[in-house]
């Protein structure tokens, strides 16, 4: 096995053309923080993009930034902070969940795995913020998709296709992202001693209100100890993050108190850090259990009543995005077939984020696609990577 460490798009082209000529598969890596996410790979060689780093262009007035795919997210966020700007989808750092160093993930890896943070409930997921990119396909050709403005209306919307593709369509070399202003103030409050059923209904009401919350999570009693003071909040705590000016926040808190009715509302110190911890799955990092990420449609009040009695919710779990996303621990070694089936019936999906190599080899890491969609996935793969050079089988067998 050879490792090709590249620092330019030209070197990526050379590595891919060599792989194509020799019919050798390539594992695409950045800093390797999520290398153990997905089905195990047995590639011939490694394409290391960590040297393909650096901010290419930053236009604060236009609120866009272009960076090479191997650029650390921390480097980008530091540059944006100097101009009081931020990435709206608030990239989640999954590295510590896999035993990697914190703050070492690359922007290409974050986009490829779709590591969306808690603020996505307000600003949208990474697929809504990737305006354009450059990449190399399986023909050994460099190309670009999208552009540098929010409304790209010509051609196919390729940026959305690459978010969450796990590198199976080829290596990204450069990305352009839209930006948002940093708020003058951030305030996080905990609605305490609230059950799961009541909390999900409450969070859904807040999401539908004019509060424009940038974080809506729930930490049940069973998981509260992992979040320090939250373990003291009775049945569980619904967390709400708001931002704005001092006057705007005062109005928002007053409105929130009306929405929560009889429940107590307590200011939470370090609340922004708590949301980062939830979005990164950090509270599961030291556990032996497998870790799942469940995405489900936003429910209307009352839809949780039947599932309230499910024994599965006795495991450690944390809800984000007003209950539309749930991190949960699972018994090691289980293939998750029942969980996949449950989510299919409800219109959602489940992903096995962390498990042993043996479990990931035989389990459904990603939900099985319906035949029509699976055929479309195969056709897209063939269009970008006809020889299946890039991360073959990382999501599904044959993709």
Folded structure, characterized:
Helix content is 28%, strand content 23%. The chain has helices spanning 9-22, 73-81, 107-113, 120-123, 158-162, 196-208, 221-224, 246-260, 271-280, 337-346, 357-362, 371-384; strands spanning 3-5, 26-29, 45-48, 55-59, 64-68, 85-86, 130-136, 142-146, 172-178, 180-181, 185-192, 215-220, 236-244, 265-267, 290-295, 317-320, 325-330, 349-354. It has a five-stranded antiparallel sheet with strand order 4-5-9-7-8. It has a four-stranded antiparallel sheet with strand order 12-13-11-14, sandwiched between helices. The protein is globular and about 70 Å long.
Summarize the topology.
Layout (H helix, E strand, L loop, with lengths): L2 E3 L3 H14 L3 E4 L15 E4 L6 E5 L4 E5 L4 H9 L3 E2 L20 H7 L6 H4 L6 E7 L5 E5 L11 H5 L9 E7 L1 E2 L3 E8 L3 H13 L6 E6 H4 L11 E9 L1 H15 L4 E3 L3 H10 L9 E6 L21 E4 L4 E6 L6 H10 L2 E6 L2 H6 L8 H14 L15
Parallel strand pairs: 1-3, 2-3
Antiparallel strand pairs: 4-5, 5-9, 6-10, 7-8, 7-9, 11-13, 11-14, 12-13, 15-17, 15-18, 16-17
Give me the count of strands. Answer: 18
CATH domain class name of the largest domain: Alpha Beta
CATH level-two architecture of the largest domain: 2-Layer Sandwich
CA(first)-CA(last) distance: 21 Å
- Tell me the number of structural domains: 2
Largest sheet: spatial strand order: 4-5-9-7-8
Question: Radius of gyration from the CA trace?
Answer: 21 Å
Secondary-structure element series? EHEEEEHEHHEEHEEEHEHEHEHEEEHEHH
Strand content: 15-25%
Largest sheet: 5 strands, antiparallel
């Amino acid at each position: 096995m050879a490792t090709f460490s590249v620092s330019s798009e030209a070197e990526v082209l050379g590595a891919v053309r060599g792989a194509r000529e020799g019919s050798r598969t390539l594992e695409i890596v950045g800093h390797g923080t999520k290398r153990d996410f997905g089905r195990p790979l047995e590639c011939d060689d490694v394409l290391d993009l960590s040297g393909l780093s650096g901010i290419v262009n930053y236009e604060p007035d236009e609120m866009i930034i272009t960076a090479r795919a191997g650029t650390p997210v921390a480097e980008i966020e530091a540059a944006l902070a100097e101009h009081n700007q931020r990435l709206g989808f608030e990239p989640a750092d999954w590295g510590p969940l896999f035993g990697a160093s914190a703050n070492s993930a690359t922007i290409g890896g974050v986009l490829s795995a779709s590591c969306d943070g808690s603020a996505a409930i307000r600003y949208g997921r990474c697929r809504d913020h990737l305006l354009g990119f450059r990449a190399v396909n399986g023909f050994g050709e460099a190309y670009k998709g999208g552009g540098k403005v929010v409304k790209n209306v010509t051609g196919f919307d390729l940026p959305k296709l690459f978010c969450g593709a796990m590198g199976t369509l080829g290596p990204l070399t450069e990305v352009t992202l839209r930006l948002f202003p940093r708020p003058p103030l951030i305030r996080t409050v905990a609605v305490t001693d609230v059950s799961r059923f009541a909390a999900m209904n409450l969070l859904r009401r807040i999401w539908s209100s004019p509060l424009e919350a940038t974080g809506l999570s729930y930490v049940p009693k069973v998981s509260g100890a992992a979040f320090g003071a939250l373990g003291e909040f009775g049945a569980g705590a619904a967390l709400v993050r708001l931002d704005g000016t001092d006057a705007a926040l005062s109005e928002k808190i007053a409105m929130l108190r009306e929405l929560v009715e009889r429940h107590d509302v307590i200011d939470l110190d370090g609340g922004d850090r708590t949301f980062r911890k939830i979005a990164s799955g950090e509270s599961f990092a030291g556990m032996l259990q497998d870790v799942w990420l469940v995405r489900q449609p936003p429910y209307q009040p009352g839809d949780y009543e039947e599932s309230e009695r499910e024994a599965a919710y006795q495991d450690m779990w944390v809800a984000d995005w007003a209950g539309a996303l749930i991190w949960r621990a699972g018994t090691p070694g289980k293939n998750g077939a029942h969980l996949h089936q449950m989510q299919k019936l409800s219109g959602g999906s489940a992903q096995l984020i962390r498990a042993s190599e043996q479990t990931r080899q035989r389990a459904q890491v990603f939900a099985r696609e319906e035949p029509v969609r699976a055929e479309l996935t195969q056709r897209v793969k063939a269009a970008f990577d006809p020889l299946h050079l890039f991360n073959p089988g990382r999501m599904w067998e044959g993709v």
